[in-house]
Amino acid sequence: MKFSELDLNDALLKAIKRSGFEEATPIQAETIPLALAGKDVIGQAQTGTGKTAAFGLPILQNLEKQHKAIQAVIIEPTRELAIQTQEELFRLGRDENARVQVVYGGADIGRQIRSLKHHVPAILVGTPGRLLDHLKRGTINLEEVKTVVLDEADEMLDMGFIQDIESILKYAGKRSQTLLFSATMPKPILRIGEKFMHNPEIVKIKAKELTADLIDQYFVRAKESEKFDIMCRLIDVQGPDLAVVFGRTKRRVDELTRGLQARGYNAAGIHGDLSQARRMSVLKRFRAGKLDILVATDVAARGLDISGVTHVYNYDIPQDPDSYVHRIGRTGRAGQNGISVTFVTPNEIGYMRTIEQLTKKKMSPLRPPTDDQALHGQLKQAKEQIEELIHGDLGKYEEDANELLENYSALDLVAAFLKNLSKDSTAVKVKITPEKPLPYKGKGRRNSRSRNGHDRRGRNIHFKRDRHYNKRKRGNHGRDFVIKNNKD
């Protein structure tokens, strides 16, 4: 469906054309008419399907331009997604002179308060915690809000924000419209719909669209100690334009980033311990194509909306099937094909089958490339770089080039140049600290603890001696039962 068929005004159609969009995505085509009519909507759609425009365009069209009050609130799970949403709404509403502001934790709240005081936004985008903080301080007023949007609702549920969201919705009690978007629909999300929405229309993308048909999904069976070398060889052979590598923990992300950089790859990592400024700097470089590989945890990558990602490498299999869908959804966007590769240790095969049941698509086994194949891939990329360099102005280098040719053959010089541009994967040894694998999810394992030291929820189980505890409570043989959450 063309955007011109959706009853949008000329200013918005101009902004859409300027952004390069031609046809509406399924979620946009079904949601925009309902939202324009003022109806409550529950939309099930993955990240990257155009949800921002699906709720943003109706909000922008229905704004009262001269009214100096917050008319719409959009709640996002992460700072990065809040910033991206604010930027996209600003671009779409530029011709409408719509003021859009974003508030999120980790930034100077004093500056946010001053900005809110001097220029009241028509649309406010924010993370749950910071929005609630402003509400309690009285620095924002939601009395005249007409529309509230809950974006990536399942992510906010996973991050423990449901109570904050319910509090925010109570502050915006006079709203006339609530829009909720989520990739999955667990019961707590549906309860929000029942409690806070009025006869919502359900917009659900067909299952085949949720299983990422444009993404070729592979798995590599490998021991923990083999994974890093195999991943490097795969990157050399596949030559991704932009790739995201997922690690399960912050430590893993740091180790993978250092290892990739040591082997000459243009890589950087993001996780929750980095400052907001550092994370935004890395993401900006990645979006601009100045980084080839982004290494990230699930938490840090939530809400990432970066076009052009060609490959996703799951160095660690995700802790739940929904996270897998979110991860691979970083590629295969805007009608482009993508590739995902998941590394699976032998005792994680059963867990992988659970993921396949959710996505309704089997992962194809992938044979790890040999060192010779990896070298061939490196040399192919090096030759492409040389061809690009030759088209530049080389005049000022001729004198030094002639001097080198007097001492070395042209063949030796080209070979040395190729050696310099390519990467020898065996030259730099990289050690990645092994992590305990996830529990086996196959049949026949009904006990609550698995043999690899995890319980059924994937949490590490450790026993420690505690003589003080033993004195307090006899009969436990001096052992204190401790559960450590393995999530980022």
Written description of the protein model:
The model is unreliable at 207-211 and 440-488 (pLDDT under 50). α13 links the parallel β10 (267-270) and β11 (293-296). The strands form 3 sheets. Strands 3-4-2-5-6-1-7 form a 7-stranded parallel sheet, sandwiched between helices. α3 crosses α4, α6 (128-137) crosses α8 and α15 crosses α16 (349-359). It is of the alpha/beta class and 488 residues long. The chain contains 20 helices and 16 strands. 42% of the residues lie in helices and 15% in strands. Its EC number is 3.6.4.13.
**Mean of residue pLDDT values:** 80
Strand order of the largest sheet: 3-4-2-5-6-1-7
Major pleated sheet: 7 strands, parallel
Helix count equals 20
Rg computed from alpha carbons, rounded to a whole number of angstroms: 26 Å
How far apart, in Å, are the first and last alpha carbons?
Answer: 41 Å
Q: Spans with pLDDT under 50 lasting ≥5 residues?
A: 207-211, 440-488
From the helix content, strand content and strand pairing, which structural class follows?
Answer: alpha/beta
Strand content: 15-25%
* Secondary structure: helix percent: 40-55%
User: Strand tally, please?
Assistant: 16
Task: Give the CA-based shape.
Answer: globular
